[in-house]
Amino acid sequence: MHRTAVKKVVLEGVLDANDALAQANRQQFDHAGNFVVNMMSSPGAGKTALLEHTLDRTLGKVRIGVLEGDVQTTLDADRLARFHTPIVQVNTDAGFGGECHLDANMVRFGLAELPLHDIDVLIIENVGNLVCPAEFKVGEDVRVMVYAVTEGEEKPLKYPLMFRSADLVLVNKVDLLPHLHFDMEKFLRNLDAVNPGVERIMTSAATGEGVDEWCSWLERRKG
Amino acid sequence: MHELAIAGHVVDIAARHADGRRVTKVYLKVGHLRQVVPSALSFSFDLVAEGTTVEGAELALEEVPAVGLCRKCGAETRLEAFPLQCGACGGLDLEITQGEDLYVESLEMEEQTTNNQKLTS
Known about the structure:
heterodimer, A: alpha/beta, seven-stranded parallel sheet, B: 121 residues, hypothetical protein PF0899 fold, three-stranded mixed sheet, three-stranded antiparallel sheet
């Protein structure tokens, strides 16, 4: 048999399939009246610790549900179990050696386990990673990034994809500032260079600083 | 390493459009602002394509430069680095008109379906 090469025009977005699923998630959220936060950061920036404070402050005021994404373990979900809030853990290790992010399809699976109609705010705690989660919409209303001052001033310039996509940056671990050579002005300058004027709140999961302000932001944006 | 996840989607798209035919080349457009490392993407592509009709295909990756349209003065600027700034007035309020692309433009494939496919069809 003879073979001829043919060329075919495709013009298909690499993330189209994911975006379509994200849109489907979004419709489900809208139907249930959920305000959805996609929370992203590098590993160890303090997402879960801030979530603990958030659940503590909003108990009885806002019904928060949590979708935890991790490559492995249910450690984060276990930490939050004491708040008796709807929570589901999605492990991404079924993917190609453990996906480094949540995509719309993984979130879709997690949603089946959550009572969305009994939730006002759904917080999706993404896998700790400063690059990949930024690429994948999951159907969220807002993207909140947690950034620890221990990560240095230059990260916005090195990882612009995620910093550009954030609606709010929680600048965490500020209680450590006296012990660090961290130039806050320089960091904020770098942040504004990639995402001019993005909202930011100084927080500490250790002392609780800024947590009230963050919870107010959440309630305000929820509408 | 978002390149691995991106490569997975590229292979899926190519295989679906080829519909059983062997893919020999995939043309991919990547915007300058997508933060994609070409070598990491090519490596991941080869890995993910193994065992599919896209195995052994060449990944032709073309970077699309970033361009912004100033909302204040209307000037168009090619954007190389952050801050993304208007070259004419220095304004930061830009509409990104190019550089966030990430799509499979076209692919080359063999006309014959593979033997396996022929047997089942």
